[in-house]
Amino acid sequence: xxxxxxxxxxxxxxxxxxxxxxxxxxxxxxxxxxxxxxxxxxxxxxxxxxxxxxxxxxxxxxxxxxxxxxxxxxxxxxxxxxxxxxxxxxxxxxxx
Length: 96
Known about the structure:
By secondary structure, the protein is of the alpha+beta class.
């Protein structure tokens, strides 16, 4: 198995805060790879991008997400879904 490229910064926390949306893509481009190792808050992490990475991430047999969202946010999302799924009394979908 090939070795995973390493971002040679001591810690990349400030870099990811400075460019949260572009950090991974730019580092992948500079390292010539779709994945790399880096430190965030002094903890080793692996950053990945691409279709295969997304498929792996959303594979429910690989990742456990229960409790990943704080209960208050989960309740808000549930209310939002209910509000958009059930029409209010006295309104019709053509009234919009």
